[in-house]
Amino acid sequence: MNISICPLNNNRLFEFPKTIDNNKTLQEVLTETEGKINNYKADRPNTMWKFYKFLHYEISAFRLQSTIGYAVSLPLHFGEDSNKKNVIKFENLQDNLCFWRCLAAHMNTDKTAYRRLETPTKELYSNYYGEKYDESYKGVKYLEYKKFMDADIDESEYKKAIDEIDKIEHHFKININIYTQDEKEITQIDRRSVNNYDDVLYLLRHDNHFCYIKKIENFVSRFKCSRCSKLWSTSTACHRHEKTCGDFCKHEFIGGNCKKTKNIFEDLPERFQENKFFYHYITYDFESILSKIEDKRTAALSFTNKHVPVSFSLFSNIPGYDKDPIFVCHDNVKELIDIFVKTLVDISAKAYEINLKKYADVLDRV
Description:
The protein is an alpha+beta fold and about 375 residues long.
């Protein structure tokens, strides 16, 4: 058999670089890449040729430092259902102060008319930057947070941080959690604070714009893992899952009908099935009389008599004790109990002797 190789030409998948700034554009690039790869696999001189493998490929990624500014167009579901009143969008404003408006809205809960937040917004801006608002301001510098790292951040790391959100958290002593919602009612964690301040600011990001979430419990119904797309009912559960989710996390469904799990007896080999239960037993019964005692009273009860054992009867299926019931009556309670216990011990010893022979094969293996 002769084997020939027909190499493909080196080609770029895309004529121009693709910009990825949210999960939606990432999924679009992945889908388009998969389609192009499948086309390359199908590109062969004739049906006698078969695709073998890609011998080499390169991926070049360039991290862009983007700023958060005003929204050009927000998704329709941002203004539907519970989002209509729970998400403050701050749209149609020709500046890049959306983050500072969200922070001002959070810190000024008494101002229900959000158009009156312009002064508190610029005050927070000046408080952080140490200067008056400049109209050339490009917005807060924000990079996707290292959300899979669960570690404490000290002050030295804040000073080196490129992401301004880290520094703003430290400056105002507030946790900042950021989410995205490209699909209606399905939310992804964009950034989860690792700090433990008393106050928490919840933000919704769409491209380069922040919206303010008044109550997180009214905002979402499901959280989606950014790696495997599995849905979770709480952000805590989703965050815990994301830290371990990866290439080794798979969902396997074996199929078939539901089968009841065998118990320990059903799981025994066939040769042990006949003797899987302990065959011997004892039954007994006590009789007692009421004996008068010195009257004892509590707030709710009065004790005038007590039960005193006077006799017992006992029967067993153990050989030697399986013919006639044992009946004992005694006027001394202690003697009666001693006789009862001694009889049980004797019967138990006889049962042990019998079963030692019966299960000798099993005991030898153990």
